[in-house]
Amino acid sequence: MLLKGYHKEIFRPECNNSFQSLHCIAHLDEDIGEALPYVNAVLDGDSFIKSPPSVTFKMHGKLITLHARKIAVNALKDEAEADHVLGWLREEINDAWENRENITPKYTGKAKPHILEIYKLLPRTNCRECGQPTCMMFASLATEGVQVSSDCPRLTSSGTNALNDYLSEFNFA
User: Fold this and answer.
1) CB–CB of 100/39 below 8 Å?
2) Is 121 in contact with 135 (CB distance < 8 Å)?
3) Chain-centre distance of CA 40, in angstroms?
4) CA 154 – CA 151 distance, rounded (Å)
5) How far apart are the two ends of the chain, measured CA to CA in Å?
6) Which residues fall within 8 angstroms of residue 172, CB to CB, at 6 or more apart?
């Protein structure tokens, strides 16, 4: 077992104390840096940084980042949920480490759509009918999966198909 213990710190975000959700930082008793490429392979991380090592992924509306000596989790409803998420992560980390001989480590994150490629597929009228001030803003939000082709009322059917085809390469459509 690689990760045996941690102590957690629960807090409201300092940027806005009125937020209802909580954040958690788990300070790890052990260094899990060597396990992160294996955890990244198993959990299919959104981003991976080699030095210092970290893997970030989105899961169930939460942004979770694993570092060598800490874990950060946002958007928690209470301490019980933090305990549940941290317990699950400890199992995932330990399982990945124990099975590392059978796992190909992954040192990259997921490919993401390019804002300019999306922008080229849009009507580029800045009509604001989608609720965004510009088509570039729409494209920016589409790179995160927030906007989809059906949100642009000015897209033609061929434009909708082209945008859906492009975004499907990234599991966004």
Assistant:
1) no
2) no
3) 12
4) 9
5) 39
6) 113, 142, 145, 148
Burial of 64 per CB tally in 10 Å (0-12, 13-18, 19+): buried
- pLDDT digit string, tens, across residues 75-101: 999 999 999 999 999 999 999 999 999
Give the tokens for residue 144: 């995160």
Within 10 angstroms of residue 143's Cβ, the number of other Cβ atoms is 19
Q: Which residues contact 88 (CB under 8 A, 6 or more apart)?
A: none
**Secondary structure (DSSP) of 72-131:** EEEEESSHHHHHHHHHHHHHHHHHHHHTGGGS----S------HHHHHHHS------TTS
Q: Which pTM does this prediction carry?
A: 0.71
Whole-angstrom Cα distance, residue 101 to residue 159?
Answer: 46
DSSP-derived pairing of the beta strands 22-28 and 62-67: unpaired
